[in-house]
Amino acid sequence: MSVLKGFVKDTAVYGLATILPRLMNLFLISLHTDSLETSGYADNTAFYVGAAFLNVLLAYGMETAFFRFFSKAEDENKVYSTVLIALTVTSLIAFAVLYALREPICEALELPVEYFGYLLGVTILDALVVAPFAYLRAKGKALRFTGIKITNLAIYVVLNIFFLWAIPEFNMQFSWYDPTALLTYIFAANLAASAVTFLLIAPDFFKIKLVFDKQLFGQLWQYGWPVLVAGLAFVVNENLDKLLIGNMLDKDIMGAYSGCYKLAVFMTIFIQAFRLGAEPFFFSHAKNKNAPTTYATILKYFVVVGAAGLLFIVCFIDFFKALLISDSSYFKAIEIVPYILLANLFLGIYHNLSVWYKLTDKTRYGMYFSILGAALTIALNWYFIPLMGFMASAYTTVVAYGTMMLISYFYGQKYYQIPYNVSRISMYLLLATSGALVSFYFFRSNYGVNSIIFLAFMGLTLLLEQKELKAILGRSKK
Questions:
Q1: How many Cα atoms are found within 13 Å in the side-chain-facing hemisphere of 379?
Q2: Residue 99 CB contacts under 8 Å (≥ 6 apart), including other chains
Q3: Cβ partners under 8 Å of residue 458, min gap 6
Q4: Separation CA 474–CA 462 (nearest Å)
Q5: SS3 content of the chain, % helix, strand, coil (to 5)
Q6: Distance separating alpha carbons of residues 316 and 296, to the nearest angstrom
Q7: In whole angstroms, how far apart are CA 135 and each of 84, 145, 159, 472?
Q8: pLDDT (0 to 100) of residue 258
């Protein structure tokens, strides 16, 4: 089996852990937007913005550091044990500290304080399973990883359906049920799913001898703290726009913007599946003499698939919006979708390019790039939202991720040269983006013309790449 075929296989299995739950979650977008007013959806968004910040803070770069040190360690169990103990201890300490700070945290998020207990419970439980999940990925146990992830999302989805749809639909009578407290049930469902996940993976805490190596932890921390800062900056890039829209405009607009932002979920699924398979793959194949060429090939086809996905979603945007969002009051923000898709594709490319600073132990550059992106996000949103409304946030997301992508590429070629086919990649990005904008602004709902636009892109791509694809597939069969 070729290296590339092995990578695709692993990514496909991890993709199952992402795609199946996300497909279930697609229904929830419709259910939530149908059940919640746009202002209620804004509180739902604030909850998960807070969860994103706390998840990064509580993991503090240990997941990426684990992969780096695990891949080259003589004693793999010592690396796992050290990371596991560190994350467990810091999570328990963080529980007390964060609970004491619950009021200022909720004020910053504009989240009602009664939801904080759910937020804290979910994020602490998620932090406790970071190391076991990383261990499963590093050991190639993709099926178990996938099974637990799917179980988590299945519980969350089923409980959401029960609380938000089944009870009112069948007029079930429960003394504890409050139809005005739907957000509470959404967050309780998430807490229940996280608790079950913890119980399922808890046996992995005791499979090895628990040893904490202080010197090793110091090395892990030195590698991981720039990843922490980069992660926090990334959360700012990904989520601050929603909070600023709610603060500078109103919660109604914030809810509509956040709902339409969810239409980029298909691109998010693709990028997340890629990252789950790519990170351990990049580290494990770093010593291969053909590694740079392999990384270049992976990026090109990542762009091909991502660009095709962007174009397909925009060409048939009215179908997808009707599929995912039943409340038309959210559609006031539909124009953001092409730009958010492009921004997410830039982000995916950036994650692919990040291999250079992870393999050369220069993770501080990832921190610098993410801080730059966060600075652009803050400054441009703060200045342009009052002038342009919510579209300023969509444009800013493209600028921030595009800038990070370009800077990472140029610095990467200086420290770790990879022979990326820049001209071909640029052409695919330009063609897909141009086709998407033409489709969105001139041929909305004209599925005949949009089908031609999409098929023309795919035909050209296959024409240009057929020789290499045949060679790759031919090697895979040997």
A1: 8
A2: 116, 120
A3: 308
A4: 16
A5: 85, 0, 15
A6: 31
A7: 10, 10, 29, 30
A8: 86
Instruction: For residue 165, count other CB atoms closer than 10 A to its CB.
Output: 14
Tens digit of each residue's pLDDT (9 = 90 or more) over 181-207: 999 999 999 999 999 999 999 887 877
Amino acid residing at 218 = G
What whole-number distance in Å separates Cα of residue 430 and Cα of residue 435?
A: 8
Q: Contact at 8 Å (CB) between 82 and 292?
A: no
Residue 101, number of CB atoms within 10 A of its CB? 12
Q: Which of 243, 234, 231, 228 is nearest to 108 (CA)?
A: 243
Smallest Cα–Cα separation from 50: which of 110, 92, 95?
Answer: 110
CA distance 338 to 433: 8
DSSP state of 202: G
Distance CA 14, CA 213 (A): 31
- The total domain count for the chain is 1
197 vs 221: CA distance, rounded Å: 26
Q: Which residues constitute the domain of residue 172?
A: 3-477
| Residue labelled with tokens 């720039």 | 226
Instruction: Give the confidence band of 470 by pLDDT, cuts at 50, 70, 90.
Output: confident
**How many CB atoms are located within 10 Å of the residue 188 CB?**
18
Note the pLDDT of residue 66: 92
- Residue 29's SS3 state is helix
Contact between 443 and 450 (Cβ < 8 Å): yes
What value, to the nearest 5°, has the Cα angle with vertex 243 and ends 237 and 246?
Answer: 145
Under a CB-based contact definition with an 8 Å cutoff, are residues 314 and 240 in contact? no
Task: Tell me the whole-structure pTM to 2 decimals.
Answer: 0.76
